Amino acid sequence: MTLPIITNKIGVIVDSFQLGVKEGLLKAKQVGADGVQMYAVHGELDPANLSSAARKEWKSYIGGLGLDISALVGDLGGHGFQDPAQNEAKIDKSKRIMELGMELGTNIITTHIGIVPSDQNSRVYETMHVACEELARFANDMNAYFAIETGPETSEHLKTFLDGLGTKGVAVNFDPANMVMVTGDDPVQGVYTLKDYIVHTHAKDGVKLGHVDPRDVYGDYGYEVTLDHDQIAVMAESGSAFREVPLGDGGVDWPSYLRALQEIGYGGYLTIEREVGTNPEADIIKAVQFLKGFRA
């Protein structure tokens, strides 16, 4: 079977370099990325810390490097939108991040919303549904997307949840490695299942070593487990149930996956994420070259 020939732009999550934002942006340019994704939850790019003038300065600086912004990361942690006591503040913060994205030149914000419960009649499902309906309407009204990252549940189950929201304002940030590592779901089939919702992707790879309860990775409202602020990265490093590996070395069938993205008409970014490893820059360079190997 011949390899697919892609035209997608290649992005890098700036934070993967484990440097400051400006130095990470320079590194992204140096490794040959077309664009970047950046965290906008706290620190330098927290909307609460940015004046109108500062936002214009950031947009000018990034544009001056010849880089696009593929998306912002708006993951607020915790249990996503499962806890009704926290949702008012989280929804407001998410809206501010979407507004920031539009000012900086991207209409895509990626996030985790928490594990979607299997019981559609449960209180947690209803809580998440109500929050995402509001965010979907807000995003839709400004021609933006609040994109859920794949991983905590199967693609079929996520599609059922999304189908019930009424608009495409809440969409999908497709991460094939999370599916391989946690649920064991097939990312190639997942592309076809979620084809109407995919607006951004993460280029990451991994292997599944054994069974893992998604609640032990992503947490769950009322499930008593102590999680690190980024538990999937911690577990991917330790390799007890799964391991994140450099692009092309894991369980993602890249030729079939990229062909599936082509077949559904996805022309957006392939944004490299490297959450583990002692030399992320070398792994990111390898990933850029790996993806460029699929270009004509």
UniProtKB/TrEMBL annotation:
Ranges annotated as spanning the membrane: none
One Pfam family, short name: AP_endonuc_2
Taxonomic superkingdom: Bacteria
SUPFAM superfamilies: Xylose isomerase-like
Keyword Isomerase appears in the UniProt entry: yes
Gene Ontology MF terms in the entry: isomerase activity
UniProt keyword terms in alphabetical order: Isomerase
Xylose isomerase-like TIM barrel domain residues: 27-292
InterPro entries xref list: IolE/XylAMocC-like, Xyl_isomerase-like_sf, Xyl_isomerase-like_TIM-brl
Protein name (database record): Sugar phosphate isomerase/epimerase
Originating organism: Paenibacillus endophyticus
